[in-house]
Write a structure and sequence with these properties.
4-stranded antiparallel beta sheet, alpha+beta, 27 strands, Endonuclease I-creI
């Protein structure tokens, strides 16, 4: 960031990705701020492997109370959602360092990134792949590039000077490779680079009875791995990144693509050079008539129809009709896996505080960060353009508290300063009325309450009986109410309730009706949840095995053979897994028995043919998952036998086989567990559709809701609010309502 700051100071035009009016676009940086660090620096790591370094007072977009909002990093915790940007706009360049790039040259660059090195005046692309060799032959001939394949060392030597110099732009040495300037190329040229790269370092393989697939590429360059995530997101492909240690002790970065919809994009827009890789990918895509959607949507952003389900997220395919945000098309949602404090002594930190468009920007591997100061300025700019108009700030105490209250308030202070500037600075907001709401006027910065600014404080009391009746009518408008529901009676019973309280009562009554209609979970849900809970409870045994496997990898790296004793702890870890597998087998059998009952229920219900077909495919998918789980258990027993029967000297081939088999077991366990959870969510959504037809909300549901939900504002609270209103402005209590009846608030 310091280098970026210096380039900006020197007048270089720098662009970042920003979300503006629901569209993702590149936006020029207007200002980068350098200021004293006032809070610790942390690294946020997400479940997909993305990382971003921020100070605790920097704002990050997350999901809270059913909305996408920005909050200080200090308020985030493990398990919270992080908002990521996908569909990043591609560049518009067709040259690098004044060298014209076409699709042929771009593909050759991709092959260099995956399989190449530079040896003095030559670029060598190491490959024995006949299809790749033929492709390089074609490109060198068409582009008049001097090159020759040497079968003896299995590499293609390219001598043409301009191409050698071009490859140096992408890093020399495996750990130093990068996409760099390639990210600014036109989309078709970037696609050709990715095609070359994935043809060399990438593969497509099937797992678990060929029911699931993965496109994977592996690199030892951290920079290249990070930039590959950005490059793929320009095609709408959301990849994961995982780290592992190879046999020689180097950290490798695995780029993983695992959803069918993204396979389709990859196949259509990128693809492989090799037909033997393209063909199975295309056949797999054609065979998948049932998919899991492009991404997971947080439960909080989904309509209340699905609110009863005790899950964290849904597939976008399942809930596409209930989504609240059009913007979601370009966003992905990732869980925070870790927040690590970094032991750094930076005196200064740098912030992108102004971009030409928008008030947010991309950081890390695609994490959406917020610039609150620019947001305030943008709000007032749009208000002046639309004048006369009203700006309304809800919960203004959250964005404009007293300045200098604690050491992490640097960003808050800037927001308050900007708000003051907009209210009475050099450009007066003519024909713009500013209204704010708060229940804590005592913590708002005093400067905002001075004459000429937010100088009039008015207390808005809780609604009276007539207002409560109108609020009930609004929130029950779309409900199927039973004949015994009397809204006038409910309005009388809810004295002291706010509008939000009444909304909560109506929502709770509706959910009680839904839960009553749904009844008990189906047998398949109970059995499957029991299996999932048990697998989660024994996951520690698999984690211990992963630790012991890493010890084996380090102890045997670069060895032609090893002692059998070096596998003793790994063998103990495998035996520990076996000791807890018997209950797992019983629970698998219980789920298999309930599958037939599930299909019988579906056949009896009055569902659309497409819905029945979806349920049948889901049942088949679940059966395949159970078969994969049983196969994994068999592999564990075979691995235990192999480890128990090792000779004193273990050959390199046996070492590789043990490592590969153990890695496969650990990976399958995690994958199968996640897929079982997703299958359970889909079964629950089917039960929801079956069980909630023609649900009526009765009087008893409202009475139970009233017992559960109490007024959020007590009489004592109201007395305090009235006192605050008198202290900071004037009140509208019942005694003063008549004399103020002419005023419109």
């Amino acid at each position: 960031m310091e280098k970026l700051y210096e380039e900006w100071l020197n007048g270089k035009d720098i662009e970042v990705v920003s979300v503006v009016d629901g569209k993702v676009r590149w936006s020029k940086i207007e200002k980068i701020s350098k200021h004293l660090r006032t809070s610790p620096i942390v690294e946020i790591i997400t479940e997909s492997g993305r990382k971003v370094k921020v100070t605790l007072d920097h704002s990050v977009f997350t999901v809270k109370d059913g909305e996408i909002v920005s909050i200080p990093t200090s308020e985030l915790k493990k398990g919270d959602w992080i908002v990521l940007v996908n569909n990043i706009p591609s560049g518009d360049k067709d040259e690098i360092s004044r060298i014209k790039i076409n699709k042929n040259v771009a593909e050759l660059i991709g092959l260099y990134l995956s399989e190449g090195d530079i040896n003095k005046d030559y670029v060598r692309i190491h490959t024995k792949d006949i299809e790749i060799i033929k492709e390089i032959d074609r490109i060198t001939k068409e582009e008049n590039i001097e090159g020759k394949y040497y079968k003896k060392d299995g590499s293609y030597w390219i001598k043409t000077r301009w191409f050698v110099e071009l490859c140096k732009e992408f890093g020399v040495g495996a750990k130093n490779k990068k996409l760099g300037k390639a990210l600014s190329l036109k989309k078709d040229l970037l696609a050709s680079i990715l095609k070359g790269y994935f043809s060399g370092d990438g593969s497509f393989y099937l797992r678990n009875h060929k029911r699931t697939g993965t496109i994977e590429a592996v690199t030892v360059s951290k920079t290249l791995a990070e930039e590959l995530l950005i490059a793929l997101s320009m095609f709408g492909i959301f990849a994961r990144i995982k780290e592992r240690t190879n046999r020689v002790g180097n950290i490798e970065y695995r780029i993983l693509i695992g959803r069918v919809e993204q396979f389709e994009v990859f196949s259509k827009e990128i693809g492989f050079i090799q037909e033997r890789k393209n063909k199975p990918l295309e056949e797999f895509i054609k065979s998948k008539k049932w998919t899991r959607g492009k991404r997971n949507i947080p439960k909080e952003l989904v309509g209340e129809l699905y609110a009863y389900m005790e899950v964290e997220h849904y597939s976008d395919r399942v809930v596409k009709k209930a989504l609240k945000k059009v913007l979601l098309e370009d966003l992905y949602f990732d869980r925070i896996k870790e927040i690590n404090y970094l032991n750094r002594d930076d005196t200064y930190v740098y912030d992108v505080v102004e971009v030409v468009e928008g008030h947010n920007f991309l950081g890390g591997y695609g994490v959406l960060l917020h610039n609150s100061e620019k947001a305030i300025r943008e709000i007032f700019r749009k208000a002046r353009q639309s004048a006369p108009c009203i700006i309304f700030f809800d919960e203004i105490d959250a964005i404009a508290p007293k300045r200098g209250r604690d050491i992490s308030s640097a960003v808050t202070d800037k927001v308050v300063n900007q708000l003051l500037t907009e209210l009475d600075g050099m450009e007066e907001p003519k024909d713009v009325v500013v209204i704010a709401a708060t229940n804590r006027p005592d913590i708002i910065d005093p400067a905002l309450l001075r004459p000429g600014r937010l100088d009039r404080v008015i207390l808005v009391p809780v609604p009276d009986e007539k207002a409560r009746l109108d609020i009930f009518k609004i929130h029950t408008r779309g409900m199927n109410l039973a004949e015994d529901v009397n809204l006038e009676e409910l309005a009388k019973k809810t004295e002291g309730y706010t509008g939000a309280d009444i909304e909560a009562i109506c929502r709770e009554a509706a959910m009680l009706a839904v839960r009553e209609s749904i009844g008990n979970p189906w047998g398949i849900e109970t059995a499957l949840r029991d299996l999932i809970n048990y697998l989660q409870s024994i996951s520690g045994a698999f984690k211990r095995t992963a630790v012991e496997l890493n010890s084996v990898i380090k102890a045997t790296k670069e060895k032609e053979s090893a002692e059998a004793g070096e596998f003793a702890e790994l063998n103990n870890a495998i035996r520990n897994i076996i000791s807890v597998l018997t209950p797992a087998k019983e629970k698998i059998e219980a789920v298999e028995k309930e599958l037939n009952n599930f299909l019988e229920i579906i056949n009896k219900e009055d569902l659309k043919p497409s819905e029945k077909e979806e349920a049948e495919k889901l049942a088949k998918y679940l059966k395949d998952l159970l078969d994969k789980l049983k196969e994994m258990i068999d592999n564990i027993y075979n691995l235990e036998n192999k480890l128990g029967n090792l000779s004193q000297k273990v050959s390199a081939e046996e070492i590789d086989e043990i490592i590969k088999t153990t890695q496969n077991v650990i990976q399958r366990f995690t994958t199968i567990l996640d897929e079982l959870k997703n299958a359970l969510k889909d079964i629950e959504s089917i039960r929801l559709r079956v069980s909630t037809k023609d649900v009526k909300v009765k009087k008893e549901h409202f009475m139970k809701a009233l017992e559960k939900i109490k007024p959020s504002v007590s009489k004592e609270d109201m007395r305090i609010y009235e006192k605050l209103a008198q202290e900071y402005g004037r009140t509208t209590t019942a005694e003063k309502k008549k004399e103020e009846s002419k005023e419109v608030i």
